[in-house]
Amino acid sequence: MATKTIALPAPLTLALTLGLLTATAAFSVAPAFAGDCPAGQAATTDIQEHPSKPVGVTDDVLSAIDLSPKGEAWKGNMLRLRKLVVQPGGVVPWHEHTVRPANILVVEGSITEYRSTCKVGIEHQGGDVSVEFGQLAHWWKNNGKVPAVLYSADILPPAMREDHTM
Is the model more confident about 45 or about 98? Predict the structure, then answer.
């Protein structure tokens, strides 16, 4: 029997991709929330040094949707889907998420997250999802021997359009 490939319009393809990413995130997070700060290691003040420049990381925007047609509250905001590849020893520099919520899905390799709210690094394995929202500031480092591949879905506010922090 022959198979038929159906080409979908770009917005529908993006919607399906984001839906798959969201569903994957919903079903892959364990009840213990793998990738959270370990018990007893929460910090109330930032005690870490943090890098300010990316090292060994590519950040490619796969798709972006202008949310302005959804109403005045969304004017200038973009819903983005990005692919980040962090080489061994590579760094995603210090950044915060007070105005840019994101979900990060680790699809290959592993990567360590260093949060302002945790005294120790948090290891993320393939299949883990990190929720980045609110008073969170952090940076990431690939301490492994293979590239870490991450997909990021975020809402980019107008004020950050020219900001090249990750």
Answer: 98
